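Handover notes (outgoing to incoming on-call)

Open items:
1. CASP-like protein 2U3: sequence verified, structure written out, both below. Nothing else pending on this one.
2. Nothing else urgent.
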Amino acid sequence: MGAYDGAEAPRAAPASTAANSRPSRLLLLHSLLLRLVAVVVSILVIAVMVHAKQRVMIFKAEWDNSKAFVALVAISAICLGYSFLQFILSAFHLCSKSWKSPTKCWAWMNFIADQILTYAMLGAAAAAAELAYIAKNGSSRAQWQPICSTFNTFCTRAGASIILSFIAVLALANSSAISAYHLFRRPSSSV
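CASP-like protein 2U3 structure tokens:
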């Protein structure tokens, strides 16, 4: 006869809450860093694009002459505000002694907001990239001449801002993936 004699097998002791929260805290730290990257890069996108101006004789190229560049700055400002708010909330959660995983409602709100802002930033960056492509290469069908040979400084700054905006998209997309993980993960069960 064995030690258990057909009786119910003993259950393993539940894992400590500190051990269960370690991956979540690590993900929260990654999310915090991604939000910080999104904040910094969004600031750079706005600063570089707003300074994309150049005058050549009587001609002038400015970022606010294009709706695509204005949209990029506006979406970057919204992403900046949202990412900064999420950074502050994540930092507060991380530093809190009574840290808990986010509620389902909070996880859904984060997931939806992250998705919306990621796609909005991607759309604005893509529209600005298309405009930059036309500015650099022109369009023979529309009979638009390339302007970057004349407005080199303007095109360089606009291009740098567009590259930075795609970096912001990557940070927002990764942050969105973490939000999705928090929302759709299966709770760990202790058996």
